[in-house]
Amino acid sequence: MRNNIKVQRAIQNLTQAQLADRTLVSRQTINAMELGKYVPSTVLSLRLSKIFSVPVNELFELEKSDWE
Length: 68
What we know:
The structure is a single chain. By secondary structure, the protein is mainly alpha-helical. It is 56% helix and 6% strand. The protein has a two-stranded antiparallel ribbon with strand order 1-2. Helix 2 packs across helix 3. The protein starts with a strand and ends in a 7-residue tail after the last strand. The mean pLDDT is 96.
C-alpha cells in the first residue's frame, strides 16, 4: 500500500514528532508508515484523515500486490 503521509505532513508543515503527538502514536510509527513498513489501523487512518482534512483514500492507495 502506498501513502502520501509525508507529502501531507509537509503541506501542513508538521514534523514527524508533531504528527505523532496529534495522532497519539510514536514518531517511529509515523516514520514506519512513511517508509511503507507499517500499515496503520482503521482508527489511525481516520485520525490522519481528520488532521489533514482529506479523505482516507487520498492518503492511502492499494497497489497490485495488495490484491494478490
